[in-house]
Please model this.
Amino acid sequence: MKLKHFDINGQARFITFCTHNQLPILSDNKIRRIIRDEILNARKHYGFKLIAFVLMPEHVHLVIIPTDKSKVGRIIGDIKRLSSKRIHKYIIHKKSSLIRKLTVIRNKVERFVFWQRRCYDHNCRSEESSWEKVNYCHNNPVKRGLVQSPEKWQWSSYQYYMCNEISSQDIGIID
Model:
């Protein structure tokens, strides 16, 4: 059964996607940079507004506003596909033991898998709901005990909101 996404023009979407078997493998800064770069590349390619993001050890949260022409499934599919290819090259080059954990057999073919097949998405039906999801993203590392406060977690959009360390052109928050 194919998971259905309900794209509503101009409405913020809260999206979560996880690593294969929810392995906590997003702890390598090079892997995090690859994922962040692919999110920003997708933003440029599809023109969506990236309202917030956070990279956690085994999952990613995004709050985006897709354009009329972009579909959430396509956006997330590209982010996952392109980041997976780059990460695969990186861990092979590094001769990482992760390669065994991320190799599966599907349809009698051995494959590298980095991400779970699906993603979770939620339509934010109000501005209040959108801000709730932004705050959820920024506070997720604190809630998990990874840092004492959101500004200590460099793998989120929090710095843009509080310190303007990320340019609005990169994030695309309120053009």
